[in-house]
Amino acid sequence: MPEPIALAAGHLWGFLSALRAAGVTTALPKQADLLRVIDASPPRDLTALYWYARITLLHDVGELGAFDRVFDAWFRQGGLQDVVPPPASESDVPSPQGPGEDDPAPQDVLPGDGTRASALSTYGSRDFGPDDERRRSVMRDLEAAWPAVLPWAPSRRRRPARSGDRLDMRHIWRRAHRHDGEIVELRRRARPPRPRRLLILVDVSGSLRQHTPDLLRLAHTALRAAPARTEVFTFGTRLTRITPALSHPHLDRALRAVSGKVTDADGGTAIGAALQEFLSVPRFTALARGALVIVLSDGLERGDHEPMVRATARLSRLGHRLVWWSPLACSPTYSPVTRAMAAQLPSLDHLGGVRDLPTGLAEVRRLPAVLSGPRRAAARRRPTPRPTGVPS
Amino acid sequence: MTSVGSSVAPALLDERELAATLEREGYFADEGLCTAIHLALRLNRPLLLEGEPGVGKTEVASVLSRVVGRNLIRLQCFEGLDSGQALYEWDYPKQLLQVRVAESRGQEVGDLYREEFLLRRPLLRALESDHGAVLLIDEIDRADSEFEAFLLEFLGDFQITIPELGTVRARTPPIVVLTSNRTRELHDALKRRCLYHWIAFPEVDRERAILRAAVPGLEERAAEGLVRAVQRVRGLPLLKRPGIAESVEWARGATALAEGGSPWPVALRRALGLLIKDEEDTRLLLGHAEELFGDA
């Protein structure tokens, strides 16, 4: 009776192509695996089939939600064709509490606050204007300045070197072999320095509207200078990884790509929530571990500042150095007396003033002093806040 | 064969028999994990396990080695792990001595790239094991991505190419378990060669069974409250959610304190350091203490 078998086979192929359509990547060898196990030990029931399919086809828990939806549609509800692909999410680790996705998406209800109204899309060549050339030259200076100031750490993997702490037996032996077993010279292995990662978190909320384009240009120069070791995120009400978008060597194209990705520009600020979101994804915290972390934000947190202070403290513990650049700190009379900034100052290694590219360049040049100095020294470097400036 | 001969041919176990067998060894696996192990044995594919720390990923390999009666060979990954530490290395001092000895006796040096000069590292040992081995490649996400490239030939065909000697093939293909804590994305090429299973936190019944097996002195009612508390703790926004390992430790600690005379709820609270290992999390937890341990 070939007919039911042909039907089942057709259904299975339909399922596989529906998976592809829903964005779950299934390589051909994995599909072959599924067919092989079904053939080798036919599944007892639907649950068994589910596990067979999930274990052979899935290779990333981030795609589990989409996989479950397609499986349910094809095997539990009888072949519904209209499988909705899941929205691409930046933080694709599911919340292990349950099936509910808890991405905060307060932006969704506000119409028209997307990319069209974004400050990111309002510059292009137009905004460069008369000081185009000056800006470009500062950006060139920045690009040249970054590599010299970024920190290094000894690599974990030893390589042959002129001098080092271990003998390189392989090379010694090969050379000795050439001289009939006589050791003519010693070779050594050392741990060569390896660049540390640079993590830049850019605040794109409304309070920084006028600075956002320059802050992103600053991040772009860092990415150009050290493409392999720089990661850039933006945050306003939610967190967005913009490293791939900003990686385009051409500035305008990179910024246009970023404005397409960042949907929460010029909105409210939830620094604490965004940083917590960053820290809740293990893959992102791995980026911060041992890295030079630079936060570009005014630190004006509305509401409870406790989550922000806690997130900053954790970021500081994870990273090699935590530097906070605030446009407000450019003013000579500025002192970090808002409750949020005052509370997190002890976690910072340096609090600097950056509002545009020249101030950015000045701060980049100060980084070596920050990197060689003691940790969490921001409070010591700043003058003590005057009590008159304390807001209610 | 040695005493391991009494064990069952692993590929012949179906999921349910496998679950029962694992349970006898003290490992309580759910249907998904049993199916994953079953398929890995059946298809002879490496099994990639992901999950939060402390859900028993590593334990799978060691319990599996007991069930199928094979040696467990473990390769702990770390940043900077290279082929010399994972696959093989030539014993250079020994080769050098051989040359000197041959010279002093006036003999021919002979071939210096022989098996006797080969230092076998875990992956090669797993291939050469007579009855096959269970190979655990632990925390693969800690190794750098160059290392994954070393693994590809091994995982795809269970063979290693040593330029001086030729290709070493597995006599009996090893059972390979890889674990990852998901701190970075693994390469597609690696994932394509593996079966994949995400181990979630256990549900209430399973966790109770685990606790009862792991902590003999634990009373029924106490176990009930403890499991409920752990499940609620996992619902809080903690930096590190407690895994099974931590809840077992907690139960052990609290039981020891209770035997020393502390009332149960007090014992639970005093042993909290075994469940939560972060000062910030502890503070958050103590804020919810009443609702969490009130009925424990």
From TrEMBL, chain A:
Residue intervals of the VWFA domain: 195-369
A Pfam family annotated for this UniProt entry: VWA_CoxE
Record-linked SUPFAM superfamilies: vWA-like (SSF53300)
CDD domains (UniProt xref): vWFA (cd00198)
Chain segments carrying region Disordered: 82-133, 372-392
Protein name in the entry: Uncharacterized protein with von Willebrand factor type A (VWA) domain
Taxonomic placement: Bacteria, Bacillati, Actinomycetota, Actinomycetes, Streptosporangiales
TrEMBL record, chain B:
Domain AAA+ ATPase per the UniProt entry, residue ranges: 43-211
Domain of life: Bacteria
UniProt cross-references to SMART domains, sorted A to Z: AAA
Source taxonomy: Bacteria, Bacillati, Actinomycetota, Actinomycetes, Streptosporangiales
Entry protein name: MoxR-like ATPase
Database matches in InterPro entries: AAA+_ATPase, ATPase_dyneun-rel_AAA, CbbQ/NirQ/NorQ/GpvN, P-loop_NTPase
Family matches, as Gene3D superfamilies: P-loop containing nucleotide triphosphate hydrolases
Positions in coiled-coil regions: none
Pfam families in the cross-refs: AAA_5
